[in-house]
Amino acid sequence: MRSLLGNMNQLRVELARVLGNETRLLLIDALKERDRSLDDLAALVDLPAEAVARQIIPLEKLGLVERLTPEGETWFRLDLDKFQQALGLFAGRPLIGETRKARPRRVREGFFEKFCSGQGIDIGFGGDLLADNCRGWDVEDGDAQLLRGVPDASYDFVYSSHTLEDLEDPALALSHWWRVLRPGGFLILYVPHRDLYEKKTRLPSRFNADHRHFFLPDEDDPPDTLGLRQLIERVLDDAEIVYVKVCDEGHTIIDPEQHSDGEYSIEVIVRKAPG
Length: 275
Known about the structure:
The protein is α/β, with parallel strands linked by helices. Helices cover 36% and strands 22% of the residues. It is built from 10 helices and 11 strands. The strands form 3 sheets. It has a 6-stranded mixed sheet. Strand 2 and strand 3 (75-78) form a beta hairpin. The longest helix is centred in the N-terminal third of the chain and has 18 residues, at 2-19. The two termini are 36 Å apart.
């Protein structure tokens, strides 16, 4: 069973990498309608045929697209059943997740070099894995609050994106995420900012029924909003808060009735004191 779950997580990661690409999604949309020639696809996405062929190769490797060669001409066919099965692995989860959305900014900032050395765990990753040197932990692996079976001090960095707000007891979760972090390592939290995402002060969330808590960077606002800095200071020992910052790159939609665009999150880095 553990091997099966691990394979499922790995498949979800690979699918997210392949499908989290705007050009490939455009190609899939075109192929949903009918089989198409390479030249036809190239014209539809306004790319050279050679570039389109390269984009389709990962879809072929996953068995989502079949290459046809009638009379020597290259055509492609979408296996709609397999595509629907692939989407089933992302039930309730976006293909382009919050972690992938934040990646360009993080690359510019040197985030990965500073905080993601060694081996890490990405809690609640949903296929949107932070980096190749991460283990993904999702619902198939068990309770994200407890991380049962994960030894103490087993990871150099612990990352979680848009998961803490879904958990019944964030303090309990942080205590166990801290438990599995090695001395000198980094706990990295990325959660929706109440005023950028929820755009309201009281539960329930307009946009995600799973949200049990709202978050602000530096302010508790009972009964529904926790200040991340305050929560960390209450729960974690031997902790140095490197930063708590608002991430709003590309955020333009302020209408409270519309889902926000761009980043709408709080990013926190906490270093565990060296042993």
